[in-house]
Amino acid sequence: MGGRRRPGSRVGDRDGAVRPDRWWAVTASVLSAHRATRTFRNGSGVFDVDLQLHSGQVLALVGLNGAGKSTLMRMLLGMLRPDRGEVRLERWNVAFAPASAWARVGHLVEYPLAYPELSVRRNLQLSARMRGARDVDAAVESIMAEFALEPYRERRTRALSLGNRQRVGLAAALQHDPNVIVLDEPSNALDPAGVIRLRESLLRRAGEGAAVLVSSHHLDEVARIADRIVVMNAGRLIGDLDPGTPEIERAFFETVRVDDERGAR
Asked: What is the mean pLDDT of residues 118-130?
């Protein structure tokens, strides 16, 4: 449990296409960006991004701090509108996607979403209701077990450690069994046991057909779960890394170095 996927169990190729030997073989992306650009006053931003995420695929977005990963994820979730280009959730532009489409999305971007004065259980109940879970109590009990939150169920969220608050945020994002999962730096502050639980949760959900997009600067961890690793630098997607690459961190830094040198010419 918790190790790298076996080659025969990978759900996607490096070009993002899902292999046809899976029952959920995909013909269209569930979340995509087409030449999506958002520029800020200081000149930073995200530029001409083309990206597709398919059902059953685990796609990892990696880059140095300030590369634009969080900005891109916020655009994909409709939190920021592109200056030009388009972002689509299933068949809709994200600006016009109906609530029924967003109900199938689970996300955690930058900070765990929780009411600090409420208990862990109450936070998860409210989240489950807002996300349309069919059986709220069952969803809460199941996700608390999945992320080992039972000992803290009646504790106020503000009294938790940062790592356990992160677990609450992840639990809230995943408890309604979303079809599309978008997580920005999901392993932040997690202890080793928490990282393993997260890894197993995402692999299971992808195996059941969910589309998973994660950003991270922990290359060794995302290489354990990703079908495709996309490198971002200075707001642009600059290439892919094979998850099976030996010394993947060295390959990452070399990819970024070459791009920086090209940009300096």
From this structure: 94
pLDDT confidence tier of residue 114, bands split at 50, 70 and 90: confident
Domains of the chain from N-terminus onward = 24-104+179-265 (3.40.50.300), 112-177 (no CATH)
Residues in Cβ contact with 259 at an 8 Å cutoff, skipping those fewer than 6 apart:
233, 234, 236, 238, 239
Maximum C-alpha span of the chain: 59
Residues in the chain: 265
pTM exceeds 0.85, yes or no: yes
- Answer yes or no: is pLDDT of 4 > 70: no
Average pLDDT over residues 62-66: 94
- DSSP tally for the chain: helices H, then strands E: 8, 10
Cβ neighbourhood burial of 55 (10 Å; 0-12, 13-18, 19+): buried
Distances (CA, A) of 253 to 64, 127, 151, 166: 9, 39, 41, 28
